[in-house]
Each structure stands twice: as structure tokens, then as C-alpha cells.
């Protein structure tokens, strides 16, 4: 009745907006959703599993993948490379899975270019005070480090207009419900219906 | 944080798809949603209340409203007039309410012309067999009357492609959840966010 193709969702947020917890809960609420696993040249941290949290590769492999155009987006952060495989996303979508990409605003822009039907969701913190509290509360960094983080957060927030949906993460359960609603709604878009099924089941009756 | 304007949702379906029950439940699940009350020249049936089920007017009044361009859509069915007031919808939307219009596909098309941002939802029965069962089960009409109803249903179904979303009313609770998801998702569209709120709360911090 529905097409076998899934949708691609991008979730972006400034640091401190609560995106990570939202995405974790999302896995529980919609278990058949897939999160894309990024490639990275960063060394695994304790508890990180290859193929689950990241696919860990060395820099030569990563550069070869860049050269082969395998990444829909990639970036270098603090000397480490991070990249999203185009083929991995396409495979999951073609298998019928909805895919979620937890990615920054630069990455979001590149995803949209390659996947124009992707659905972009931006998560905002409820207020600047709350954002400041969340960014300072969880780390003991120096004031200028915190200032830099706040500036980065504001730079990310400026990009919200390029997104399809904006979730304000004030009451967590409401924010989660809103993301779930976006995903469920996307599944019943007219473009997702199997036109042949409608034809076979209803319209041909007339002939 | 969000704009004060509501959204307009159109729900259309062939007779027998279960639209009426879905709309009734929708009122319970989202109590702050408004259903537009149509004007009609039809006489009230037992139990129908003026201003709740319809606004009952005589034909002269109705024709005057047509002449004044007050209807966003109107139709004559079995000799009676039915019409949707443009102003009523605009008032409710401007007061911040989401409005649902339970209307046929011809009406849906006219709504879209006047309200290009309206969200159009089409409800399909799960199968032709089920539709036939529902159309025959609930009335003791002659076979040619049923045939005519089925033909009308198929003609309505042909229009589903002009809708944004298609709900298949197989499992009622799933269909209801999907309509609710569409409404919740629409409330968090980026176009619904108060741009000044974002600016005041986050972006101006930088200056």
C-alpha cells in the first residue's frame, strides 16, 4: 500500500539543545528507524563500538573515500575527519527504512543538496539562559571556552531558517512527541503511496 | 515562541472511508482544534443545532452571501445549498486556532485556491471490498443506488493525488494517530516560528 522507500531525516541543534537525548529516546519510541553511522579517523573512546557508534578508519582510507566521492558530507574537526556515506543512506532508504542523521548545520546543507526530499529538523533550546546553563553546567571549562561555545551555538541557531521544522526543547516529552509526529506524518505523504495499489484496488474497478 | 496564526486542514474522503468517525475522535484528542461550521439552506434534522452542526439560512440569505463573495466554496446538493464562509475560517486562524474542514474533493480544490498554505488530507478505505461492505452494510438501498455510490466513491478517490497526505483507514487507531501527527507536525513548521522571538532570545546576544 505504501512505497517501499524510506525517508531521510536530518536533526541539527546547537550544543546544549538536548539533541543527543532526544535521538536516544527516538530510537526507543520508533525502533524501526535507522541512525546513520558516520566514518571517522578519530580513535575509539572507551565503550565505543566499531560499526555502532562510528566506523573507524585510518586517514588513508578516509582520503580514498573522499577521492571516490563516497561521502555526502564530510568535515575535519580538531584534526579528525568525520564523514557520512552516501551509499549507506541510499541502501537503508531503498530497503524501506527511515533514516535519521544527527548532524551539524553545515552537514545538513550538504545533505539537502544530495537528497532534496530529506526532511530537516532543527532543535532549539527554550532560551538563551537555559542554553548558557546547560553549556556551563556540564563542564568545568574556562569562561572564554564557554563564550566560544555560546558563540558557536548562536552561529548554528542562525541557520534554523533553512530547516523544515523547528522543535523548541522546553518540555522534553513534547519535543519528542513533535519529532515523532514529523516522522509519522512523513510516512503518510501522498508521494509515499503506491500509485499502482490505488489503481489496482479502486480505480480499475470502474473499467 | 510560535506565531499566533493557526493552520487550515482539509479532510476529504469517499463515502464509506470512515471520515466522520475519524473527525469525531479528532475533536476529543485535540480539543483546541476548530471545525468549520457550514452554512446550509437545508432544513435542520432532528438533533441538529443551529451554529453547531450547520448555520441554517434561507435561500435568499444564501444567494446574497454568494453575491457578496462570502463563500470560499459552495455547492448545491439535492436542491440544497451548502457553503463555507471565508471570513469564519480566517477569523479562527487569526485567533490562533487550527481549523479542520470536512469537505469533498471539489471543495478541497477551492479551499486550496483561496488558502494555498492549507494542508490537504485524503482518507482512503483499506480496500474496495471493505468500501463495498461499508456502503452496502449501512443502508438498505437498491443495487443501482449502491452502484452509483460506489462510482461516486471511485470518482472521489481519483482526486487523491491533489492531496498532501493519504491516510489508509484500515486500523482506526493508526489512522487517527496519523492525522494527529500531521496536525502536530504542522504546528512546528519553521514558518510557524516567531522569527522575532528567535532573534530577541538568541541571535541578538551576539551584538
Task: Explain briefly what this protein structure is.
Helices cover 42% and strands 19% of the residues of chain A. Chain A is an alpha/beta fold and 207 residues long.
Q: Features of this protein?
A:
alpha/beta, 207 residues, Guanylate Kinase phosphate binding domain, 2 domains, four-stranded mixed sheet, Rossmann fold, homodimer, five-stranded parallel sheet
Give the arrangement of secondary structure elements.
The structure is a homodimer of 207-residue chains.
Chain A: E1 8-12, H1 19-29, E2 34-35, E3 38-40, E4 54-56, H2 59-67, E5 71-77, E6 80-85, H3 86-94, E7 99-102, H4 105-114, E8 119-124, H5 128-137, H6 143-157, E9 165-168, H7 172-187, H8 195-201
Description:
Two copies of one chain form a homodimer. Chain A is an alpha/beta fold and 207 residues long. Chain A has two domains: 143 residues, 3-Layer(aba) Sandwich (Rossmann fold); 61 residues, Guanylate Kinase phosphate binding domain (2-Layer Sandwich), CATH 3.30.63.10. The first copy, chain A, contains eight helices and nine strands. In chain A, the strands form two sheets. Chain A has a five-stranded parallel β-sheet with strand order 2-7-1-8-9, sandwiched between helices. A four-stranded mixed β-sheet of chain A has the order 4-3-6-5. In chain A, strand 5 and strand 6 form a beta hairpin. The radius of gyration of chain A is 19 Å and the shape is globular. At the A-B interface, helix 6, strand 9 and helix 7 of A face helix 6, strand 9 and helix 7 of B.
